[in-house]
Amino acid sequence: NTKAFIFDLDGVIVDTAKYHYLAWLKIANQLGIEFTHEHNELLKGVSRVRSLDIILGLGKVEASQEDKNKWLLQKNEDYLSYLVDMDESEILPGVMPILNYLKEQNQLIALGSASKNARPILEKTGTLPFFDAIVDGNDVSNAKPDPEVFLLAAKLLNIKPEDSIVFEDSVAGIQAANIGGMVSIGIGDAETLHEAKHLFKDFTQMDKSFIDALIN
Ligand code: G16
Ligand code: MG
Fold first, then answer.
1. Among the atoms of ligand 1, which is closest to the Cα of residue 144?
2. Could you report the per-residue pLDDT of 193-207, keeping only the tens digit for each?
3. What DSSP letter does each residue of 52-99 carry, written as one string?
4. ipTM over 0.95
């Protein structure tokens, strides 16, 4: 059977979540807002604009659109500065064997990311050729937990939602997959991602027999 395997990007294929955090932390510090790793969980899988609103909300800071635009630009420039030297060494453990195995099994692979910087990251890490479809923050208007990003990916691959499998590290992303009627697979912390249908600490914990069971 041909299934659609939809990968989130940040926190699933590459550990860019730490760079997002550092860039947001700078903004938060500037504004005197406390911003912990726990707060950062709320931002995973969430769009850039919404992320800023969440941070401002944490500090009960009200700001003009002009200021917001300035901070959004600053955050992205700072984030991009961390990506300059990015290469395949930043691919998370166990990801390449799974991508290769899915290709061997003639399965379809898509990206379903909230990021507007997804394509250059796939290029820099050499993973772009694996993807049969790419849907990112430039293509959708409704952010996760809205399932739009994953539904569009499945549609581009001509695969039904129920035959689609989503790998996600964020609560919002797992919810999006579930709402979309897809099989949600959490990659990360069991407690944080308890809504996922299946859960793995990382891709090294996932063996081929698990993939085989999803395909057949
Ligand atoms: C990612 C991150 C989020 C980030 C969002 C937007 O989503 O998890 O923290 O805010 O993209 O990214 P950018 O500012 O690059 O457009 P995902 O869905 O790949 O995890
Ligand atoms: Mg993610």
1. 18
2. 999 999 999 999 999
3. HHHHHHHTT----HHHHHHHHHHHHHHHHHHHTT--GGGBPTTHHHHH
4. no
